């Protein structure tokens, strides 16, 4: 029986303002793709990201351009060849995974997880701000075991110190979002090490990070904007110690699984992260992240309103998705 696809643009308010080195936003803009066949429907969600030249209209148009092939029964493997990596392919790929699970009655977890999926610990993200404001955020979340701290400005040492003093027991990931420079990266890395930072994400701009091959890494450094798919991953050996896998970058769960396995082969640590989206976007990533070294899937915790049903969060633990949500 033929498939039918529908695409919907949606907005979910953020609880307050979410700020990184590139700017601020007050809502999550997402696109949901639903692929139906007979009485079954599969869903996927993506978050268009301007850093990669994506817009809501552009991603929606890219999904619509695939309508004939999707409704013509394209496979996930064929989708990898038919579309480039990115948000549009992610929404379609995850919808196809979900549809297959609904049709067969076989949960996605049984196909991709080595053991029954369990609740996993996720980071909780603190927005970029002045040191005092960031200390207040950290103090309010000091009971969380893992915090992800947005930095990337001229006053980062003061921010690091303020957050560490406010949350002395938490492990901390710093995410510079390409905001450091060749002139300050060595000093900032050393300062981070002195303050017990566990990981630093993408300190330098993608493509301008060659200095990382020639300086000490007193704190492990994780590629984010510098890594999308498995192809070319070998070129990051020596530059980075870990890679952040996001479904919206890799273009879906299918490609993300390949990227994860290739990263392990090359000796990289693995982080599974997200854009700011709803539980529908996080659900497949929770399964991908079952054996990750770091998990950053707190998107729904940053929203004022999530989908219903959504993922279940208990403090910093996020449980695997119920099949009513995805998979």
From TrEMBL:
UniProt-listed Pfam families: MR_MLE_C, MR_MLE_N
UniProt-listed SUPFAM superfamilies: Enolase C-terminal domain-like, Enolase N-terminal domain-like
Cofactor: Mg(2+)
Keyword presence, Metal-binding: yes
Catalytic center residues: 150, 246
EC number of this enzyme: 5.1.1.-
Gene Ontology molecular functions: metal ion binding; racemase and epimerase activity, acting on amino acids and derivatives
Cofactor note: Binds 1 Mg(2+) ion per subunit.
Positions annotated to bind Mg(2+): 175, 201, 224
Keywords from the named record: Isomerase, Magnesium, Metal-binding
Highest taxon, organism lineage: Bacteria
Matches recorded under InterPro entries: DgoD-like, Dipeptide_epimerase, Enolase-like_C_sf, Enolase-like_N, Enolase_C-like, Mandelate_racemase_C, Mandelate_racemase_N_dom
Residue span, Mandelate racemase/muconate lactonizing enzyme C-terminal domain: 131-222
Coiled coil: none
Gene3D superfamilies: Enolase-like C-terminal domain (3.20.20.120), Enolase-like, N-terminal domain (3.30.390.10)
Family listed: Belongs to the mandelate racemase/muconate lactonizing enzyme family.
PANTHER family found in the cross-reference section: D-GALACTONATE DEHYDRATASE-RELATED, ENOLASE SUPERFAMILY MEMBER DDB_G0284701
Name of this protein: Dipeptide epimerase
Source organism of the structure: Mesorhizobium mediterraneum
Organism classification: Bacteria, Pseudomonadati, Pseudomonadota, Alphaproteobacteria, Hyphomicrobiales
